[in-house]
Amino acid sequence: MLDRLFWISGILLELLLLARGVRTRLVAKYPVFYIYVIFVLFQSIVRFCVYHWYPLRYMESYWYTEFFAVIVGSGVLFEIYQKGLAPYPGTARLARNLLALVFVVAVGKALAASLRGPMWWPARTTAELERNLRAVQAFAILGLVILLLAYSIPLGRNLRGIVMGYTLFIATSLANLAALASPGHEFQHVWSYSQQLFYLLVLCIWTVSLWNISSHSALPTGAETSSPYKVSEQQTRERWKRIRLYFGKHKDR
Amino acid sequence: MGEATAIVALVLLALVVVSALIVLWRRPDDAIPAATLRSGAATDGAGEAAHSLSPAANQWDECPRETIEHIFGPDDLNFIRCNGSDRLRRAFERDRRQIALHWVWNAFDDTHRIMSRHFRAVRSSPDLSVSLESKLVAEFLLHQFMCLTLAGALRLAGPNNLTRLAGAIGNVRHQVGTVIEGFSKSAPGDLTKDSGLQTHS
Q1: Would B6 be classed as within a structural domain?
Q2: Is B140 left (phi over 0), alpha (psi -120 to 50) or beta?
Q3: Cα distance between residue A102 and residue B9, in whole Å
């Protein structure tokens, strides 16, 4: 009974989120995110129907739809990177390098695993594949959060809501995958409710933050009069030099 | 990777992601108005910027290096020891530790401010160099780590004991240096000579 209530609440919230998106025209601003929401809505309805009319097929349909949700979700991450860092070309380049590093490490790990076994792709099941992809997403979002915090990059309420909701969603997905892999069915049963509750919380965060279009979404290009990078870098080193002298460093490179 | 290791890794990763979420949530939403940024960037000269970091920012210019060496040095403690009062020695050590800790935290905070300022100044630079930036961040992290280690050591041992430790390390370094120098003199061209290493050709 409770799981049905969660399910229907989720579908209603997804519909509300979409309706607000169309009304506020945020759909045009964040197209990938709204495609993701449409996909998740479709996924929820399909799963609900399968659960009721073909319960034996439910697990199969769950993992297939989940795999595609992870792929579309990765698109949301790229959109966050693209929209959030658009007014900051230097930081965006840094972010691209960071993302490339995350993916190179992931591919390197996959190749290293392939050397140990006959399979090229290290995942033996869809759950394992999702686990790997979610881990890559988690590292990508951690990199983004570090950049946002370090460079004090303002996101605006809308994008900030998307980031926070998606970060919470990834964290709960990782915990869910850990619970699935763990022995003990009681814990898995309890966690399945928590996972649904957290997903409703994610939808609430998205609905609230995307209810209206944010007036200050990002700094317009050219609002900051920045000096050339080399000059700023030299200035920072000069300032450091004063402090470093007291730490026994007499020369600065 | 074993199943148990995978579970632990996933849980840890989830915790790190949740921590990132909390930090992001606690950050004031877009607290830096564009006008402040513009004025900040305009007055971003090398000289005055360092002075406007904090009320105590001038300490790096006003406080001579000798004073710092004096704080961490043994002279005052030796003088107090001559008086033979334990109470006075304890009070002196407590005060000296507070001064040293204050100095270390100031260095920590000022470096952090300098770096924040740098990040804000360069975030929209189209010519931002990824390698230079990575190097700068690595140096910054190393410096902060040094400050934290020093603060921890000060809490545990106090500035005077640290001086003795530093002196001991300095002696060891000197001895190691002498030994290495001896090595290089005995085997200038071929490192395998006189080193006990055998080559089979």
Answers
A1: no
A2: alpha
A3: 17
Residue B70 lies in a domain: yes
**Average pLDDT of the residues in B73-99:** 79
In the block, tokens 């930036």 appear at B133
* The token pair that represents A161 in the structure block: 């809501």
Q: State how far the Cα of B95 lies from the Cα of B98, in Å rounded to an integer.
A: 5
Q: What is the DSSP letter of B63?
A: S
The answer to whether residue B133 is domain-embedded is yes
Kindly state whether B120 is in contact with chain A, defined as any CB-CB distance less than 8 angstroms. yes
The structural domain count of chain B equals: 1
Q: Which of A163, A174, A240 has the CB atom closest to B24's CB atom?
A: A163
Which among B29, B128, B136 has the least Cβ separation from residue A91?
B128
Mean pLDDT taken over chain B? 68
Cα distances (angstroms) measured from residue B153 to each of B101, B148, B159, B180: 10, 9, 8, 29
How far apart, in whole angstroms, are the C-alpha atoms of residue B24 and residue A185?
34
Lowest mean pLDDT among B18-22, B45-49, B97-101, B171-175: B45-49
Q: Which residue in this structure is represented by tokens 């979002």?
A: A141
Domain range for B81 is 55-184
Rounded Cα distance between B153 and B161, Å, is 9
The string of pLDDT tens digits covering residues A190-241 is: 667 788 888 899 999 999 999 988 875 455 444 455 567 777 777 777 777 7
DSSP string, A219-234: PPTT-S-PPPHHHHHH
Residue A85 exposed, middle or buried by CB count within 10 Å (0-12, 13-18, 19+)? buried
Q: Is the dihedral of CA B84, B87, B93, B99 positive or negative?
A: negative
Report whether A37 contacts A21 (CB < 8 A).
yes
**B-proximal residues of A, 117-176, CB under 8 Å:** 131, 135, 138, 141-142, 145-146, 148-157, 160, 163-164, 167-168, 170-172, 174-175
Decide which of A109 and B153 is more confident.
B153
Interface TM-score (ipTM) > 0.90: no
What's residue B1's pLDDT? 57
CA distance A130 to A64: 10
The answer as to whether B34 is a domain residue is no
- Considering only the beta carbons, identify the residue of B10, B21, B37 that sits closest to A177: B10
